[in-house]
Every structure is written in C-alpha cells, then in structure tokens.
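Hi R.,

As promised on Friday, here is the backbone we talked about, encoded as structure tokens. Could you run it through your design pipeline when you get a chance and send me back a sequence?
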C-alpha cells in the first residue's frame, strides 16, 4: 500500500524517516507538452516497505532537498528526466545515485524498460498504465495512484538482484562511474547556441543561411525558456529554416514566409526575430561551426563502420549493452581526437579507446577468429599477396 502526502507536516515527517535509511527509491510523473520545463505532477518515494506518493500540487516538494542532499543512495530507473524534474522542484539532485537501467546495461540488457527488468529478474508483472494519462488532473484515480506506486515498489529488490550479478562480474565500479556521469550531465536549460543542431531541415544550410539559422534557433530557445512554452510555439522548425534562407529585413518580409504566422510575431517577438537575423548575418563562420562536430577526414570514414562492427561483437562477448559500450558518435569523437569523448576516459578507455587508437595507428588489425567473431589483434605487417 501507499500513503498520499498532501501536507507540509506530513512531507517533513517522510523526509526525516527516509533520511535515516541507507537507500531509497524515487520516481516522478510529469508533463511537458505545453511547457518548456517539465511540470511535476507526482513524486513517488519508497524506503523499505513504505511507499509515499507526494502531491506537488498540494504541497511544496522543496523539503525533499534535505533527503536528496543527504548520504543515502538514491535509486532510480532511467532517471535522466527525473533528475531534471527534481532539480526544478527541489533545487537539487541526489548526491549519490544508482540507475537500474544503467546497471542492467552492464549485464547486457539493451531493452531495459522497468517492466522487462522486473519480469526478467524478479518475476514481477507490472500493471499496465495509460501512457496518455493526465497526471495533472485532480483528483487522481485509484488506478493512477496504484500504477504510480508500482513504479518504485520493486526498485530496491531489483537493485539487490542486479548488484549481485554485477559484483560477480566485477563491474560495480563501472556502474558507479556511469551513474556519477549521469549526475554530472547538464539539465533543464539546453545550450541555445546548439539548438540549431536539433533541426533536421537546417543541416543542409551553408554560408550565411547557416549562420542565420544558428542565431534564430538560439533566440527561439531562449524565448521559449523565458516564457516556459515549447519551442514550436515560438517558431516552428520550418519557420526557422525559412527565415534562415531568406534573411528577412522587415515585418512584411517575415509575414510572407512559410512557417511564420502572425502569432509568432506578437508581443515584440517579430522585432526580436529580425534582430536575431541581423546577429546571424554578422556572425563569423567559425561561430556556427563550433556547434557542429567537424567532419571526419575521408580516410577515416570506413574505420567507423569497421569499428562499430567490432564494438558490437565486443559487447556481445562481454554481455554489455552496445550503446553503453560505445555509440557511433563516441567512435567518431575518438577518431576526431575529441578530448571530451567518453572513450578517452574511465573504463571505456582501456576496453575500447586504446584498442581503436592502436587500430588507427596501424599497430592492430581486425580479423575473424575461428568462431567467425571479429577481434582486434596485433598487426603482423605481412600483407597477403594476391595470386592470379
């Protein structure tokens, strides 16, 4: 069963009890369809057999900061968005974190939904929930509350099972390192100067059009955050590209563009948009390039495909989620010698980063072993001679 928390006094009592525990599990329900920032609708918390459902529409969840800032281990599942919600609602995030989806990835589980993990490791069948349920509507139904409670009910037993298998493989340090990286990731407000990279239609723009697109997308991101509305309400992707291609100089020019409606120009937005266009026209070319990763040299492009195949084999051989081991973007970042590439650091450096560097430098070669598996091995430097 669960307890619904709707008063500050109740929440402070919950925080006091949870703070005394070595670990706790937390989950959130939220919406962001109509806002830039997520709107928290419910916070689920469990310690031992106790489950609390904290209603942030009835009680300020800020006192949870004392729990999050404490020494207890916070357990979440696929928690990147939960961290964003907690930081907005409570002003902080857990100081110690364990994400069960990440942990399962180190056991080779690549489709680590909570329901699939609970079924696989605990034999628990989670109740089916309505993906489109309105968590902001009050009162919440008994079905909604029961479903929300089930999201945290089994997280702590799940951690025990995962941790046992991870310990046997000697991978607990890897999990802790990866969860620390998750905590360190930026949250909430996306970098405006990188907003253009999320617009598919803008990727083919060049020259002045690319610069204007960068400036306009950045303006759109800042205005959406300031108004707390989705970026599409400020200006559609089509509108950003149309403005970038035409570089309008007047309100009449703006109104003539496809994807730009009168609602996009209200309350001073039109003037700001024209100013963003001028900013883009004055922008130096290298300003736009810094938001996009440079292209790989032509001679390294085939390496990406080859290494990706080897990484997939390595992941299977070591029971790891391939996406956790190294993505295509990780491989390209390593080949570009990006110092921020995660293959340059931690457990991935020895397992993936150094072997790939040896391959590119000519010290290693890719081969098939006797089982038909791709392996990296020391290069013999004895080329095969084709015979007629």
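Update: got your reply. Pasting your designed sequence below so it's all in one thread:
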């Amino acid at each position: 069963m669960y307890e619904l928390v709707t008063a500050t006094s109740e929440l402070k009592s919950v925080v006091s009890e949870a703070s005394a525990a070595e670990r706790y599990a937390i989950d959130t329900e939220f919406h962001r369809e109509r806002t830039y920032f997520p709107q928290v609708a419910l916070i689920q918390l469990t310690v031992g057999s106790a489950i609390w459902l904290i209603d942030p529409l009835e009680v300020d969840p800020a006192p949870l900061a004392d729990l999050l800032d404490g020494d207890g281990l916070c357990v979440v599942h696929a928690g990147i968005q939960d961290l964003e919600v907690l930081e907005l609602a409570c002003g902080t995030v857990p100081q110690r974190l364990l994400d069960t989806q990440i942990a399962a990835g180190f056991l080779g589980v690549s489709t680590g939904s909570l329901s699939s993990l609970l079924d696989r490791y605990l034999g628990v069948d989670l109740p089916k929930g309505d993906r489109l349920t309105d968590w902001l509507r009050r009162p919440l139904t008994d079905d909604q509350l029961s479903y929300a409670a089930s999201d945290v009910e089994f997280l702590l037993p799940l951690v025990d099972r995962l941790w046992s298998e991870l310990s046997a493989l000697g991978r607990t340090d890897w999990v802790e390192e990866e969860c620390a990286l998750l905590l360190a990731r930026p949250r909430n407000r996306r970098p405006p100067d990188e907003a253009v990279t999320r617009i598919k239609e803008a990727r083919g723009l060049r020259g002045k059009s690319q610069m204007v697109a960068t400036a306009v997308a950045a303006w759109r991101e800042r205005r959406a955050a300031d108004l707390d509305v989705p970026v599409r309400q400020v200006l559609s992707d089509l509108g950003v590209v149309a403005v970038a291609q035409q570089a309008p100089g007047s309100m009449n020019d703006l109104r003539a563009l496809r994807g730009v409606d009168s609602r996009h120009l209200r309350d001073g937005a039109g003037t700001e948009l024209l100013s963003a266009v001028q900013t883009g026209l004055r922008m130096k070319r290298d300003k736009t390039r810094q938001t996009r990763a440079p292209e790989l040299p032509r001679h390294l492009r085939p390496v990406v495909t080859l290494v990706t195949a080897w990484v997939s084999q390595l992941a299977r051989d070591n029971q790891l989620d391939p996406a956790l081991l190294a993505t295509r973007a990780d491989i390209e970042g390593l080949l570009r010698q990006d110092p921020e590439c995660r293959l340059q650091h931690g457990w991935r450096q020895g397992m993936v980063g150094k072997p790939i560097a040896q391959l590119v430098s000519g010290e290693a070669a890719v081969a098939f072993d006797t089982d038909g598996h791709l392996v990296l091995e020391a290069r013999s430097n004895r080329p095969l001679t084709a015979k007629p």
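One thing I noticed while checking it: The CA atoms of residues 102 and 175 lie 7 Å apart.

Thanks again,
M.
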